[in-house]
Amino acid sequence: MKDLMRIKCLISQDIETLLNQQIKKEAHSSSLYLSMSSWCDQNGFDFSADYFAKQSEEERVHQLKLFKYVLDMGGNAVSPEVTGIKTEFAGFREVFEDALEAEIAITQSFKNIASRCHKEQDFVTMEFLNWFLKEQREEEYKARRALELFEVIGEEGTGRWEIDKHVNKITYSEQ
Amino acid sequence: MEKACVDINELINVFSNTQGSIYQSDKLNCFYVDFGGKFARYNCLSLQKLKKIVENIDVEALLLNTNRADFELVTFNGCEHIYLLSALEIVALKDLLHGTFTMFKLNHMVNDCLNRLVY
């Protein structure tokens, strides 16, 4: 009997489902960052607004990268419905706390897919995921560093103004 | 589609239960679902979609809800077929599709061992 499902698609249904869930998570992150950008802009934190707008674009790129992979492998990529985006934040610091929490959730989600790939011996998808796992190093570092600025600079006086100025300059280097 | 239109001898029985059967045609690269008095043709993608939709039906909720009949309409975009199924039929179709996809996995493993990994 022909192995029709395998002929049609390289990835298993379980992996396809996980990747589609990840596409939705990336879309959610992209919208959340855009919402953060809006909040920062409205509250006078222009540099942070730019930082979150860039982050939003990056998440969108991640989403499309996953979307293309699922399609290229013969799977069914699903354009996700994104709802329940937080639009109100208690303060400047909470925005960054939420950003770090979102990145941690994304990292955990990728680890979960990687674990499934190992279980199924799907090394093709695993190799594809390596790029994202490496990217998460940078994403989490930047989010953690931004939050660190609140400790280093402090929020008193012109603290928040200083933090806002420095957020956009955070870069990550492996060396 | 009537069963008579298809040469049943050319089809491979992937999985059967008491309520129906699913066949594969290696010649046409498609599947036939013989269930609920209907003999319907599916490609890979639509069979996967049918499985997802049937899997997502909450039979328990269907039976406990007193505001509606214990029937479910099963169809999806791009599908030519519609099933009106009772709770018992849904359970049987779930079992049929689950068994079929398990056989696909088994067939994949057998193909790997006998053909793809032996050179």
From TrEMBL, chain A:
Its EC number is 1.16.3.2. GO terms for molecular function: ferric iron binding; ferrous iron binding; identical protein binding; oxidoreductase activity. The keyword Membrane does not apply. InterPro entries: Ferritin, Ferritin-like, Ferritin-like_diiron, Ferritin-like_SF, Ferritin_DPS_dom, Ferritin_prok. Residues 9-154 form the Ferritin-like diiron domain. It is an enzyme of class 1 (oxidoreductase). GO terms for cellular component: cytoplasm. Its main location: cytoplasm. Coiled coil: none annotated. Fe cation binds at E26, E59, H62, E103, Q136. Belongs to the ferritin family. Prokaryotic subfamily. Iron-storage protein. May alleviate iron toxicity in the presence of oxygen. PANTHER family: BACTERIAL NON-HEME FERRITIN (PTHR11431:SF127), FERRITIN (PTHR11431). This is Ferritin. It comes from Pedobacter paludis.
TrEMBL record, chain B:
This is Uncharacterized protein. It comes from the Bacteria.
